From TrEMBL:
Pfam families: Glyoxalase (PF00903). It comes from Blastomonas aquatica. This is Lactoylglutathione lyase. Gene3D superfamilies: 2,3-Dihydroxybiphenyl 1,2-Dioxygenase, domain 1 (3.10.180.10). Keywords: Lyase. GO terms for molecular function: lyase activity. PANTHER family: LACTOYLGLUTATHIONE LYASE, LACTOYLGLUTATHIONE LYASE GLYOXALASE I.
Amino acid sequence: MTKFLHTMIRVTDPDATIEFFELIGLKETKRFDSEQGRFTLIFLAAPGQEGIAEVELTHNWDPEVYTGGRNFGHLAYRVENIYETCQRLMDAGVTINRPPRDGHMAFVRSPDGISVELLQDGHLPPAEPWASMPNTGVW
């Protein structure tokens, strides 16, 4: 079973963006700061939809100008078996940009170039060919 998880957008002013989404009824559900990665993730959802259909705000601490839709990040879906899903996509000619080496996460792109994150509920044991497959592009 596939389940929609979240849509990610990159933001330059998290406080202003949170205020905007609060005006339309969303509330912050969780926040994660990564010192090593130099970013903050902030999740927002409408009341009663926490963990169901969220907006993930990604704030990269180092200034960056977003052009050409770069501020739109990705769609995310939980899948029943990440290896089977990626194999089905690859068999159909889809490039796996970030393979599920960890048995948990992969990134692919739609025909229109939209990044799609696939997440396994939990982690499957690492398996070939995925464990040794390199990244093939921007995810």
